[in-house]
Predict the structure.
Amino acid sequence: MSTVRIALEWAVVLLLMLLAFLRKGKIRLLPAFFLTFFITFFTLFSPAGKILTTISSFKVTQDALLLGLHKSAVLTGMIFLSKTIVSYHIHLLGRAGEFLHLLFSYYEKLTSQRLSFTKGTIIQKIDEKLLSLWKH
């Protein structure tokens, strides 16, 4: 894994992030940041390669760091790609196309509004949202 490859992967992630922003009008960066941080952090627990630094007895290695950044770039990029693609109205042929169109339209309706949960009403709020979609 080279640093050039990681840089190119993250450039693609930034491009997908920009496309998602242009399509949706807003994106949430904090979940993407936490996803990147924790995937990279937990990948560091399997040390491999050149030791970059040592914190107490914890060794941060180059290969583990690059692998963590690669994995988080792939997953974060897939998330932003799915946010961009789902917002487009894709029309495919056949029964499978109809099924996917219906699936994406339900997903878009489910994620179009945020649900506010209070203690003890989580299941009730989800049921109400699903029933409102079922009636339409």
